[in-house]
UniProtKB/TrEMBL annotation:
Protein name as annotated: ABC transporter
Stated family: Belongs to the ABC transporter superfamily.
UniProt keyword annotations, A-Z: Antibiotic resistance, ATP-binding, Nucleotide-binding, Transport
One annotated GO molecular function: ATP binding
GO CC, any one term: plasma membrane
Membrane topology, from the record: Peripheral membrane protein
Upper classification of the organism: Bacteria, Bacillati, Actinomycetota, Actinomycetes, Streptosporangiales
Pfam families to which the protein is assigned, alphabetical: ABC_tran (PF00005)
Subcellular location: Cell membrane
Primary localization class, coarse: membrane
SMART domains per UniProt: AAA
ABC transporter domain: residues covered: 22-252
Organism: Actinomadura rubrobrunea
Database matches in InterPro entries: AAA+_ATPase (IPR003593), ABC_transporter-like_ATP-bd (IPR003439), ABC_transporter-like_CS (IPR017871), ABC_transporter_ATP-binding (IPR050763), P-loop_NTPase (IPR027417)
Annotated GO biological process: response to antibiotic
Length: 319
């Protein structure tokens, strides 16, 4: 029988040259009559950070749960670090780090004790445990708080500890489910620094988020999910270029004026999105001069963003 430690070292390198760290093919997950994940194909290259982006209910959390076998797919195949899931889910769970959306830290224990418990659970060898805990403390900038009880930490510190706890065994792959949801901008920026640091260590990161800026800042590659499927995939800049072009022109006015702008833009094959009391025409750089004349000179030009792509492809507003 293979030991936990052997299991860890054998899955550290995914099988085969360039093999994906995570691979889902044709994955379907239903809850009763409702299909939450609907034929999902997704691969994450080793050493990259993939942002799984999508509106509420798109199926991001369910996808994460399928990777840890907390949910079992009805159809399709899943491989994580070269191993099939759920068949090898125990080995897979030992080899990866999972940072849940919900804070489930042990409030009675200190920061260090929380990390020690997980180092033990993840079977970090006894002689390496102290070092592993020190490294995790340093990574999360919590060395000075090692003896503080979790109960006495700020929200941002708790979230950093939650991430550090998922990293204490130096996993090759980390799953981050909405790592900064509900946090204030300053704490969010702190966590972005921490997550960025993982990439420089060569850790593969799969991060779900519905914050566009988070994906834009951190992800090498984004998979945009809507209704259980990936509707677009690529580096943020490439997605913007493909779906929103370089420039966007915003026209404001009463509802009938907005509807007219939309009609003219669509007739010319240009996508649009509503932004409050205005309508944005995407790919404005390819607008025929005759259309520019018809729309008039009152438009405000700006650079296209990933948010434009998100809204156009998912039909959802950004929070
Ligand atoms: N255990 C369950 N039973 C029934 N329906 C579920 C269950 N888990 C998820 N769903 C439904 O599946 C859909 C996808 O949910 P999921 O949590 O994966 O979305 P998400 O993209 O992570 O959204 P959020 O950002 O809101 O977490 C939702 O409509 C949700 O209500």
């Amino acid at each position: 029988m293979i030991g936990e430690r052997d299991a860890r070292s054998s899955v550290r390198e995914p099988a085969g040259e360039g093999a994906a760290a995570v691979s889902l093919r044709g994955v379907v997950k239903r809850f009763g009559d409702f299909t939450a994940v609907d034929g999902l194909d997704l691969e994450v290259a080793p050493g990259t950070c993939l942002g799984l982006l999508g509106p509420n209910g798109a199926g991001k959390s369910t996808t994460m749960k399928l990777l840890t076998a907390q949910a079992i797919a009805d159809e399709g195949t899943i491989r994580v670090l070269g191993l099939p899931v759920p068949a090898e889910s125990k080995r897979v769970r030992a080899a990866m780090g999972v940072v849940p959306q919900q804070d489930n830290l042990d409030e009675e224990l200190t920061v260090r004790e929380n990390l020690e418990v997980f180092a033990h659970l993840y079977r970090v060898p006894r002689r390496e445990r102290r070092r592993a805990v020190e490294d995790a403390l340093a990574l999360a900038h919590l060395t000075g708080r090692a003896h503080t009880k979790v109960d006495d930490l700020s929200g941002g510190m708790r979230r950093r500890l939650l991430i550090a706890r998922g990293l204490v065994h130096r996993p090759a792959l980390v799953l981050l489910d909405e790592p900064t949801v509900g946090l204030d901008p300053q704490v969010r920026a702190e966590l972005w620094g921490l997550i960025d640091g993982l990439r420089s260590r060569g850790t593969t990161v799969l991060m779900s988020t519905h914050y566009i800026e988070e994906a834009e800042r951190l992800a090498d590659d984004c998979a945009l999910m809507s209704r259980g499927r990936v509707v677009a995939r690529g580096a943020p800049a490439a997605l913007i270029a493909e779906h929103a072009g370089r420039r966007v022109v915003e026209h404001s006015g009463p509802p009938e004026r907005l509807a007219e702008v939309e009609r003219l833009a669509h007739a010319a094959g240009l996508p649009t999105r509503r932004t409050g009391p205005s309508v944005s025409v995407l790919k404005a750089e390819s607008m025929p001069p005759s259309l520019a004349d018809e729309l008039g000179p009152d438009g405000a030009y700006r650079a296209a963003t990933l948010e434009d792509v998100f809204v156009v492809l998912t039909g959802e507003k950004v929070e």
